[in-house]
Amino acid sequence: MNPTLLRMTAPLRDDFDIPYHDVGPRERTPRIALVAGLHGNELNGVFVLARLAAFLRDLDEGKRPGQRLLERVLIVPAVNVLGVNLLSRVWPFDKIDLNRAFPGLEGGETTQRIAAALLALTRTAYYRVDIHSSNGELEELPQVRLYEPNDDERETACLFGLPAVIERPQNKLFTTTLAHAWRAHGGENFVLQAGMAGDLQTRHCEMLFRSLVAFLDRTGIVEGLTLSDEEEDLHYFGLRQTYALLTNQAGFFVCRVEVGRWVQAGDLVGHIYDGFSGDLKCDVISPVPGLISCVRRQPLLFEGDLLMRIQTPDDSGNDAEALLHAQGQ
Ligand SMILES: [Zn+2]
């Protein structure tokens, strides 16, 4: 029987709860807490954490000879448990964004109580990981996001082995996120981004799963694993190394690149068509060289919309303000 984060009642249905996994030696303080599905339509993280829980349970039960789970691990795969059923980003009853409800309130409304219970559970762990996808418009390369990190977090972020570690400024509007609430409790805190909401992108899921297992191995939480040699090429991007490519035209966007690709300045990365006449309005050219970490998948463009984010090898980013564009967090 899995433990429950919170049990809730509803006006006209059975009680329901938010289950989580508590794996490994119970007598120990949890070493890591992994959370996904604060947004119910971000399925990659939900799926990967459920798979990871199954994997760790096998280790814990000795089903994988030579491999062991040494530390206690908490996994909450779907915080917005009702939202996942409905493919809804927000909590379905009152449309509240759970990742704007922290630190929450014990005895408050439902979403406040969920936030408070999740924080109380996860703050005991030293490592904490919150997994998101983008929204339903953009696709994110699997990456670690750091917000005003300390040096330990900068170093540890590389242990995931994901292709990009990206530092972002702490958005002053987002002080009610889980990641922000965690900072008050020390430890090391990470946000992972992978793929796009509303979809299960198996390529991103595999990369995410591998990265989490590698992280658990490198931090001594599991032992005896053979990590795959096909390690991603890891790149670290500081605050001024994110370039947000915005459109100055409305229309239909046809993207010509995938996340994870490196481009040169001047490379063709897409086209914008007039939605009625079908005329090509312009080619989209990358103004900077770098790694494409995010692309627009929903094609309808209004002027000023984000087309893609490019991580630049030097400080030629422009994205101090444009970070408000659809972060999916
Ligand atoms: Zn999210």
Can you tag this structure with a few keywords?
329 residues; alpha+beta; Aminopeptidase; 2 domains; twelve-stranded mixed β-sheet; four-stranded antiparallel β-sheet; 31% strand; binds zinc ion
Characterise the protein shown here:
This is Succinylglutamate desuccinylase/Aspartoacylase catalytic domain-containing protein. Its cofactor is Zn(2+). InterPro entries: AstE_AspA_cat (IPR055438), N-alpha-Ac-DABA_deacetylase (IPR053138). The chain folds into two domains: 4-236, Aminopeptidase, CATH 3.40.630; 241-324, RNA polymerase II/Efflux pump adaptor protein, barrel-sandwich hybrid domain (OB fold (Dihydrolipoamide Acetyltransferase, E2P), Beta Barrel). Helix content is 20%, strand content 31%. It is built from six helices and 20 strands. Strands 3, 4, 6, 7, 8, 9, 10, 12, 13, 15, 18 and 20 form a twelve-stranded mixed sheet that branches. Strands 17-16-14-19 form a four-stranded antiparallel sheet, with no helix packed on it. A two-stranded antiparallel ribbon has the order 1-2. α1 (43-60) packs across α6. The mean pLDDT is 93. It binds zinc ion (ZN). Zinc ion (ZN) binds next to loops.
